[in-house]
């Protein structure tokens, strides 16, 4: 995709309210990191009261995935998850507008050599991630250290799309934004020896998925990871990030490449991916994006879960 360009149309009065929102968010983002965390937690508690449909989705997902927890334990996890989701709003502002040096101080990175080794070998990388609430800031922090291309879906509001893309790409000036449905573009990038961020942990419907267990629930799981790895002659390198409880920033881990992947079958590959997703989510369940209806698509004959 071409670099985003400013358009005079963005000065039209219909965008003034959005410009005002950006200005207020920019001002808030100048506050100390510890204060932004406090604001995020407060906003999360407010969201619990007003976002009833999202609360229902999160509660249902936690019930499905953690049946061993008591109702009180799941309620506590739900509250923490809403707080984490709200903190992500301020992390987005930090990623977009903090000076790079200030942002870099929050990064605690492990395993960067795995990306560097693949780059030295001229081999493409599928940087396999999951949808944690820290997704935006994690990508920005890693992008300062290594070029990472990304799958991208254009926002419906052209001004928001312009600000979002421009702000993201400032960390990664030679990165490529690839439309989510542009398979040819993704394979081209991988065969050129580049790394691309890719998260296979959401429900993209029946057409491009098969059903394998996730947290003991049959989940529609995309087969694209195996296909991209095979056709793009790429390594699959898992990537995780977490917000540290002590307020010192973020731990980013680039894990060793998956061995013997793709395997003997798409079903085995999808199961292996879901088992990995489950393991990393269990390590930080409050920071996962539970507001996504992960089990929306059901096998034939099964009742809806939401």
TrEMBL record:
| Catalysed reaction, written as an equation | an alpha-Kdo-(2->4)-alpha-Kdo-(2->6)-lipid IVA + a fatty acyl-[ACP] = an alpha-Kdo-(2->4)-alpha-Kdo-(2->6)-(acyl)-lipid IVA + holo-[ACP]
The record's Gene Ontology biological-process terms are: Kdo2-lipid A biosynthetic process; lipid A biosynthetic process; lipopolysaccharide biosynthetic process
- The superkingdom listed in its UniProt entry is Bacteria
GO molecular function ontology, one term from the record: Kdo2-lipid IVA acyltransferase activity
**Keyword flag Protein biosynthesis:** no
Membrane topology annotation:
Single-pass membrane protein
InterPro entries given in the database record: LipA_acyltrans (IPR004960), Lipid_A_LpxL_LpxP (IPR011920)
User: Where does the sequence pass through the membrane?
Assistant: 16-39
From which residue to which does any coiled coil extend? Answer: none
Give the Enzyme Commission number. Answer: 2.3.1.241
Q: Where in the cell is it found?
A: Cell inner membrane
Gene Ontology CC terms, in alphabetical order: plasma membrane
Q: In which pathway does it act?
A: Bacterial outer membrane biogenesis; lipopolysaccharide biosynthesis; Glycolipid biosynthesis; KDO(2)-lipid A biosynthesis; KDO(2)-lipid A from CMP-3-deoxy-D-manno-octulosonate and lipid IV(A): step 3/4
Q: Which UniProt keywords apply?
A: Acyltransferase, Cell inner membrane, Cell membrane, Lipopolysaccharide biosynthesis, Membrane, Transferase, Transmembrane, Transmembrane helix
Intervals of motif HXXXXD motif = 131-136
Is the keyword Repeat in the record? no
Its EC top class is transferase
What is the similarity comment for this entry?
Answer: Belongs to the LpxL/LpxM/LpxP family.
Q: What does this protein do?
A: Catalyzes the transfer of an acyl chain from an acyl-[acyl-carrier-protein] (ACP) to a Kdo(2)-lipid IV(A) to form a Kdo(2)-(acyl)-lipid IV(A).
Q: What is this protein called?
A: Lipid A biosynthesis acyltransferase
Native organism is: Pseudomonas pohangensis
Its lineage opens with:
Bacteria, Pseudomonadati, Pseudomonadota, Gammaproteobacteria, Pseudomonadales
Report the gene name: lpxL
């Amino acid at each position: 995709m071409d670099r985003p360009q400013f358009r005079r149309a963005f000065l039209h009065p219909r965008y003034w309210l959005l410009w005002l929102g950006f200005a207020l968010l920019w001002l808030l983002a100048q506050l100390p990191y510890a204060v932004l965390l406090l604001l995020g937690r407060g906003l999360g508690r407010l969201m619990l009261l007003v976002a009833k449909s999202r609360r229902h989705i999160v509660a249902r997902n936690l019930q499905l995935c953690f049946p061993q927890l008591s109702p009180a334990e799941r309620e506590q996890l739900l509250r923490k998850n809403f707080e984490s989701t709200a903190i992500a709003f301020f992390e987005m502002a930090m990623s977009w507008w903090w000076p790079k040096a200030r942002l870099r101080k929050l990064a605690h990175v492990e395993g960067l050599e795995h990306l560097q080794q693949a780059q030295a070998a001229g081999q493409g990388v599928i940087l396999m991630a999951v949808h944690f609430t820290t997704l935006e800031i994690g990508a920005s922090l890693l992008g300062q250290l290594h070029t990472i291309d990304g799958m991208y879906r254009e926002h419906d509001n052209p001004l928001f799309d312009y600000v979002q893309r421009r702000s993201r790409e400032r960390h990664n000036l030679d990165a490529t934004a690839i439309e989510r449905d542009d398979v040819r573009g993704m394979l081209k990038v991988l065969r050129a020896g580049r790394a691309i961020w890719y998260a296979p942990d959401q429900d993209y419907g029946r057409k491009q998925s098969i059903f394998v267990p996730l947290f003991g629930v049959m989940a529609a799981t995309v087969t694209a990871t195996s296909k991209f790895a095979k056709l793009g002659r790429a390594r699959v390198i898992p990537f995780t990030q977490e917000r540290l409880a002590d307020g010192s920033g973020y731990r980013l881990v680039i894990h060793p490449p998956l061995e013997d992947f793709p395997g003997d079958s798409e079903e085995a590959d999808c199961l292996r991916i879901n088992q990995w997703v489950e393991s990393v989510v269990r390590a930080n369940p409050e920071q996962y994006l539970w507001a996504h209806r992960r089990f929306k698509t059901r096998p034939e004959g099964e009742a809806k879960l939401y």
